[in-house]
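Researcher: Quick test of sequence recovery. Tokens follow.
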């Protein structure tokens, strides 16, 4: 499996982020994409994430690719060997529960050839994910990136020390910090050192010797 993590994009950065994501979708060669948007269903501070953003940025710009939405039962039934796109957002626990609580969706995620995830969606790929409320602890992630925790908006929000603390508290070997409009493409069968950096390339991979 290939997992590509993007650090997200704050207001004024979203167009660049979505261009990077669409470029990665095209690079994958996948002809079907399944959006799993449950981390971002309501209002956000960034006006770019309006109700119709998925259709506007992807359907219209890449008509050669079939874009599906996991909120629609017909789309979920149609999905097969899809590239999985995990949107960002603050509702990480809802995103995780929506995947693990739906047999079809869970199978699609864990058998996907390619996953693209941004911000809160990227956090969900680790062994654990920090809860949305500061200091509220952690929840189990999807574990696609084992023994790892991920922090988005890494440099922009000065999260280096926070990531180190999380690794130590959870006894994890790896921490991946991905800044806004930066990405990392990981082949999950290979060491992180073989990964490819994307966008602004502001990514740090931290390790703790055990």
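Model:
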């Amino acid at each position: 499996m290939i997992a590509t993590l993007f650090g997200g994009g704050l207001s004024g950065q979203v167009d660049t982020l979505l261009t990077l994501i669409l470029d990665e979708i095209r690079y994958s060669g996948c002809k079907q994409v399944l959006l799993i948007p449950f981390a971002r269903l309501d209002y956000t501070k960034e006006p770019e994430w309006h109700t119709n953003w998925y259709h506007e940025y992807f359907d219209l710009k890449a008509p050669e690719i079939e874009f599906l939405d996991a909120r629609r039962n017909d789309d979920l039934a149609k999905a097969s060997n899809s590239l999985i796109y995990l949107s960002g957002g603050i509702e990480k626990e809802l995103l995780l529960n929506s995947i693990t609580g739906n047999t079809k969706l869970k199978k699609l995620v864990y058998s996907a050839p390619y996953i693209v995830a941004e911000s809160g969606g990227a956090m969900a790929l680790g062994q654990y994910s920090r809860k949305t409320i500061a200091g509220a602890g952690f929840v189990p992630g999807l574990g696609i990136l084992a023994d790892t925790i991920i922090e988005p908006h890494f440099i922009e929000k000065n999260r280096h020390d926070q990531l180190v603390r999380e690794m130590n508290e959870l006894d994890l070997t790896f921490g991946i910090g991905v800044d806004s409009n930066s990405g990392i493409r990981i082949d999950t069968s290979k060491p992180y050192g073989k990964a490819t950096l994307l966008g602004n390339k502001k990514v740090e991979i931290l390790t703790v010797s055990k």
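The chain has one domain: 2-207.
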